[in-house]
Design brief:
The protein is mainly α. The protein is built from two helices and no strands. Helix 1 runs antiparallel to helix 2.
């Protein structure tokens, strides 16, 4: 029973790490797309938002991994 709970906890932490990386990328891409549609500069701000979100996600991921 305890082994099963530990496995579930570890799995939940790994799933959370995936969301910690994916969420900023999605937010950056959507924000960039919105600004591109308003400023008529498609796809440049979306690309910058995606790259910025990826870098923020990586930074968050590394900070979490340091704590573990």
């Amino acid at each position: 029973m305890d082994e099963e709970r530990n496995a579930i906890k570890k799995s939940a932490k790994l799933i959370a790490l995936g969301f910690e990386l994916a969420a900023p990328v999605v937010v950056g891409a959507l924000g960039g797309y919105y600004l591109d549609s308003k400023l008529n500069s498609l796809p440049w701000l979306m690309l910058l938002g995606t790259i910025g979100g990826f870098l923020c996600g990586l930074r968050t991921l590394f900070n979490i991994l340091k704590k573990l």
